[in-house]
């Protein structure tokens, strides 16, 4: 026993010593990284010349944090995640999605009960609607990336096409005059959204085919880069084609959606007056919330149905092996183009909803960053998994939106501390860390669309990510 | 004619900068088959490192000689930018090696978002005007309307680029490290079996790419006289276009592509429309990938069943 103790002690101390040494190295690295960028801030002085402001305390904090984090990481007992058996209970996913759906539908009521009317508008709009737009975009892109295995980094282009299609149609004078002459002056402002929504979706789907056609031969990273280029070209055209798109200034006074002909305003014909309710802006927010819930669920439902059709199976087969697909007589051109078109169509729906919700759009909302965010939601959720995409959108968008609410941090770090400016910083870091933690996404099982006798869940690393 | 000549000079200067960045893309793609999305932002970080050290040397320490100051800035910038690239590779890419193909791409996009926002938070979102240096010009041809001029900074950019490209070419073609790199590029597993330290070679590839990006960063800062946290994305995509145009994986291709992109961009702005100059670059990217995926000097990719 005594011998054992003697033998073990040096081992324990050497482990601590090794960890300390390693952590010291990390701290030195952090020092090296932090020195110019963090230590000296360039500021313009009165005469517009740059001067340096030293901020060595920040560097000290960063170095200490790096040291502590690395040391704790090395000393922490390793938790080994055991690989669970292959078959997750198939009914579980259904139960979870059911519970989540009920929670989602009750969310406005919960928000109302917890924070009252004035607070609820903010929570429903900033969290509910904002997250659901990304859920819908994620599900739309999931068709292209997750099912068909086509890596698309320019998805925001279709979102932009949808938004601009709605905004331009709804505000264009010839259309307004034509509709006024035909159906009376009050028709178009009230029904513009409902008529333009399918038009915007079709328009985006058309652009999906148009941009999909030249890239049929490309695969993998090359496809990603070309779609990125297309997305940027569309954004640059939106910026520079000032007579039509308004350039940087964008388009404003876009008609808001009506409740099937009843506007959300204080007038006698308004929604509130019609139903004999007291007017409040809450109704519009509620309506928009349930509208995007409906649109997102439509996307989900269509995707789940399409997966069972021949075209959906062809998408998944294409993702697994393109050459095998071709040799079995699947028309890969049509398969790819339908994936692009349908994915883009849902992006267009989401875009026109976005334009209608904001009432104002500009190219600022359609940067490459949006494409990257949506793609990361799809990949982090687990490509091809519908519930995973929803969870990832909730975590990533909700997580960054919640930073807007952290005013109490100002009491700790002083009034200058602005949590919102760290939003995208933390977003990027979370993307990296989540990828390292779970490269195949958060949801590690996929439901197969076709199976023999028993519906067994498939582990996500058995699913290919596609070549093109 | 004078106007054209002037644009030619400007285009070659710009192209040198793109070429230097493009090498980082092309080498990393060649060795691990990954588009290093964060490379453009590493370049942006290097412009800030260069700016800060230049200010430290000229303002705080009051160094008189500009040439010495620039040289020190160049060396320090290369070192610290390499450190950044090394740390990024270690943290964000190495754990994902051998994982599925999309994972490093997403990780790289995350790193790119992280870097640009880190600089925005620590250095502020506004444009930073750089004190003007090396602004003197030599007049090459004395046309009254369009005198053709060559500024000292353009000369410096071209000369430094040429010298570094030669040094770099020497490293890749004539040293053990370069041999290891080319071996890893052909067959990573076989190279490992033959005793090449693959992880170290890949790290050094990132470091070399970042060092060249740091040179480009200093040049970019001097040439444009302004730096911004947002300057990583567009130059990054243009350099990537250059790498693709030249044939990704090919080093002379990256330089050739960089020069071509610089020339196209300058001539397009001069003769067509300055607003659409980025559209021109992106269109070239798309057209090259669709019609000539292996680029001008690249090897065609053989599809294996």
Spell the H/E element sequence of chain B.
HHHHEEEHHHHEHHH
Strand content of chain B: under 5%
Number of helices, counting only DSSP H or I runs of 4 residues or more of chain A: 17
**Poorly predicted ranges of chain B:** none
In whole angstroms, the N-to-C terminal distance of chain A is 62 Å
Instruction: From the alpha carbons, calculate the radius of gyration of chain A and give it in angstroms.
Output: 26 Å
Mean pLDDT of chain A equals 82
Helix and strand string of chain A, N-terminal first?
Answer: HEEHHHHHHHHHHHHHHHHEE
Strand neighbour order, sheet with most strands of chain A: 1-2
> Which structural class best describes the helix and strand composition of chain A?
mainly alpha
Mean pLDDT of chain B: 85
Order the strands across the largest sheet of chain B as they lie in space. 1-4
Distance between the termini of chain B: 53 Å
Describe this structure in words.
The complex is a heterodimer of chains A (468) and B (305). Chain A folds into two domains: 11-75, no CATH class; 93-405 and 438-462, no CATH class. Chain A is an all-alpha fold and 468 residues long. The model of chain A is unreliable at 1-7 (pLDDT under 50). Chain A is globular and about 85 Å long. In chain A, α3 (90-147) crosses α13, α10 (282-308) crosses α11 and α11 crosses α13. In chain A, β1 and β2 (50-54) form a beta hairpin. Chain A has helices spanning 2-39, 56-75, 90-147, 156-171, 173-183, 187-212, 220-240, 242-245, 271-274, 282-308, 310-320, 322-327, 332-358, 368-381, 386-402, 409-413, 423-437, and strands at 40-44, 50-54, 445-446, 458-459. Chain A is built from 17 helices and four strands. The N and C termini of chain A lie far apart (62 Å). Chain B is mainly alpha-helical and 305 residues long. Chain B has one domain (2-228). In chain B, 72% of the residues lie in helices and 4% in strands. Chain B contains eleven helices and four strands. Chain B has helices spanning 2-32, 39-60, 66-93, 102-123, 152-174, 176-186, 188-193, 198-224, 233-246, 251-271, 277-291; strands spanning 128-129, 137-141, 148-151, 226-227. In chain B, the strands form two sheets. Chain B has a two-stranded antiparallel sheet with strand order 1-4. Chain B has a two-stranded antiparallel sheet with strand order 2-3. In chain B, a hairpin with a 6-residue loop joins β2 (137-141) and β3. In chain B, α2 runs parallel beside α4. The longest helix of chain B has 31 residues, at 2-32. The radius of gyration of chain B is 19 Å and the shape is globular. At the A-B interface, α1, β1, β2, α7 and α14 of A face α2, α3, α4, β1 and α9 of B.
């Amino acid at each position: 026993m005594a011998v054992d103790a003697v033998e073990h002690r040096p081992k324990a101390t050497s482990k601590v010593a090794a960890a300390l040494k390693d952590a010291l190295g990390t701290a030195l690295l952090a020092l090296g990284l932090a020195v110019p960028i963090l230590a000296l801030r360039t500021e313009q002085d009165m005469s517009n010349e740059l001067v340096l402001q030293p901020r060595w305390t920040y560097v000290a904090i960063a170095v200490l944090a790096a040291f502590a984090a690395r040391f704790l990481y090395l000393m922490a007992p390793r938790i080994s995640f055991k690989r669970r058996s292959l078959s997750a209970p198939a009914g579980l996913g259904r139960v979870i999605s059911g519970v989540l759906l009920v929670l989602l539908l009750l969310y406005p009521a919960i928000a109302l009960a917890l924070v009252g009317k004035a607070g609820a508008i903010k929570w429903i709009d900033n969290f509910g609607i904002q997250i659901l737009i990304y859920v819908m975009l994620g599900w739309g892109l999931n068709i292209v990336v997750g099912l068909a295995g086509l890596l698309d980094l320019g998805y925001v282009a279709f979102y932009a096409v949808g938004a601009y299609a709605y905004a331009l149609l709804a505000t264009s004078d010839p259309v307004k005059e034509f509709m006024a002459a035909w159906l009376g002056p009050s028709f178009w402002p009230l029904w513009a959204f409902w008529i333009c929504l399918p038009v915007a979706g079709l328009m985006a789907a058309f652009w999906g085919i148009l941009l999909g056609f030249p890239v049929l031969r490309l695969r993998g990273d090359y496809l990603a880069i070309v779609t990125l280029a297309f997305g940027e070209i569309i954004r640059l055209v939106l910026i520079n084609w000032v007579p039509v798109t308004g350039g940087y200034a964008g388009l404003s006074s876009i008609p808001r959606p009506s409740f099937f002909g009843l506007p959300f305003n204080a007038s006698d014909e308004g929604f509130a007056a019609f139903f004999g309710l007291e007017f409040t802006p809450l109704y519009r927010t509620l309506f928009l919330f349930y509208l995007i819930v409906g649109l997102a669920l439509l996307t989900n439902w269509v995707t789940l149905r399409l997966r069972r059709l021949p075209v959906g199976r062809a998408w998944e087969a294409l993702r697994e092996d393109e050459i095998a697909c071709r040799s079995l007589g699947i028309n890969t051109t049509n398969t790819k183009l339908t994936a692009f078109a349908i994915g883009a169509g849902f992006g267009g729906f989401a875009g026109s909803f976005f334009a209608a919700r904001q009432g104002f759009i500009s190219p600022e909302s359609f940067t490459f960053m949006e494409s990257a965010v949506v793609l990361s939601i799809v990949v982090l959720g687990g490509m091809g998994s519908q519930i995973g995409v929803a969870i990832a959108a909730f975590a990533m968008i909700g997580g960054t939106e919640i930073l807007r609410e952290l005013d109490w941090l100002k009491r700790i770090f002083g009034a200058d501390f602005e949590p919102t400016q760290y939003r995208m910083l933390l977003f990027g870091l979370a993307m990296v860390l989540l990828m390292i933690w779970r490269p195949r996404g958060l949801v590690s099982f996929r439901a197969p669309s076709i199976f023999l006798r028993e519906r067994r869940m498939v582990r996500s690393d058995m699913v290919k990510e596609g070549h093109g | 004619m004078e106007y054209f000549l002037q644009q030619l000079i400007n285009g070659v200067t710009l192209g040198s900068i793109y070429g230097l960045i493009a090498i980082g893309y092309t080498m990393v793609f060649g060795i691990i088959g990954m588009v290093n999305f964060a490379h453009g932002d590493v370049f942006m970080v290097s412009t800030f490192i260069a700016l800060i050290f230049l200010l430290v040397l000229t303002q705080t320490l009051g160094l008189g000689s500009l040439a010495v100051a620039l040289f020190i800035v160049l060396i320090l910038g290369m070192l610290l930018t390499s450190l950044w690239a090394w740390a990024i590779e270690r943290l964000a890419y190495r754990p994902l090696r051998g994982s599925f193909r999309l994972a490093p791409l997403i990780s790289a996009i995350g790193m790119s978002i992280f870097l640009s926002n880190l600089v925005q938070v620590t250095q502020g979102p506004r444009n930073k005007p750089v004190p003007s240096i090396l602004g003197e010009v030599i007049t090459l041809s004395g046309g009254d309307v369009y005198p053709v001029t060559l500024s000292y900074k353009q000369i410096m950019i071209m000369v430094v680029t040429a010298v570094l490209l030669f040094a770099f070419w020497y490293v890749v073609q004539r040293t053990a490290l370069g041999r290891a790199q080319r071996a890893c590029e052909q067959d990573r597993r076989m190279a490992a079996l033959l005793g090449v330290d693959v992880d170290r070679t890949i790290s050094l590839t990132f470091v070399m790419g970042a060092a060249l990006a740091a040179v480009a960063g200093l040049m970019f800062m001097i040439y444009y006289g302004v730096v911004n946290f947002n300057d990583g994305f567009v130059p990054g995509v243009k350099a990537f276009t250059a790498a693709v145009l030249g044939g990704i994986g090919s080093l002379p291709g990256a330089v050739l592509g960089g020069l071509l992109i610089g020339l196209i961009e300058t001539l397009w702005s001069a003769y067509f429309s300055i607003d659409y100059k980025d559209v021109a670059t992106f269109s070239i990217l798309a057209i090259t990938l669709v019609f000539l995926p292996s680029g001008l000097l690249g090897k065609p990719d053989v599809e294996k069943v």
